[in-house]
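Following up on my earlier thread - several people asked me to post the actual chain instead of describing it. Fair enough. Here it is, all 284 residues.
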Amino acid sequence: MAGLRATRNFLSVRAPVMRVRVAGVHGSAPRAEGAAMYVTATGACGTIGGGRLEFDAIERARNLLADGVRRDTVGVKLGPDTGQCCGGRVRLDLDLLDEASRDRILSRLDARARASPRVHILGAGHVGRALADAVQLLPLNAVLIDTRADELAQCRAGVETRLSALPEAEIATARPGDGFVVLTHDHGLDFLLAAAALARADAGYVGMIGSASKRARFRNWCAGPGGGVSPDGLTCPIGAGVTGDKRPAVIAACVAAELVSALLPGDAGRQEAGADKDTDLEYQ
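Reply from S.P.:
Thanks for posting it. Predicted structure:
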């Protein structure tokens, strides 16, 4: 959620802000229609695609601010003249945000943040903390859960941390469609939590750290008196489809990619198609 938080913080400072929005796209372009950035006299937040297009847009927005011009529209060919080889064309709308528009955007950003899928990271060890670091950059809400206060205290990511003596209770009260990543310090607890997440039957993702042998043991456990659930919906090992590297940060990066694929499968497609035409709800 770092992008939404950064935009909210940027707009909360009451300096004059020019919004630069991709209002039209023809052919290939760095961002789809609806992408936006915000520009002040001394800063900028968000992106319309980088490169010369963005550099020139920031300069134009600042000139408008300096001259007291409230609105402008510009068409840009993304070819040799701009040093970009996309080959398409974009139309940019630039407008000075008034207080009502700014407050409306802030309200919509808050609503989007609340509605974003939630990931429950069950275990605040090395990999759990690394996953929190990775997920904080994504359009996902993350909560890091552990029974150990000392492990939670080591988390530096901008995510919610929750000390819980009964982490299975956190699973029971989660929302439909939430994701669960199980990586505690105890294999028995891992099995109990993974089974609890699978038993919901409405999770968007259930993953458990481990190996092929741990997955086999879990399948056997599920078939016994302690299980009672099907293991078919479980991803284990987590993040194993990309690399065999077992460093926490590498595992976390691979798991983050799995979470995006599982929990945000239609988000990118809708954005690239320009489906969100609400000018007060630009995506980041």
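The first helix runs from residue 2 to 12. That should answer part of your original question.
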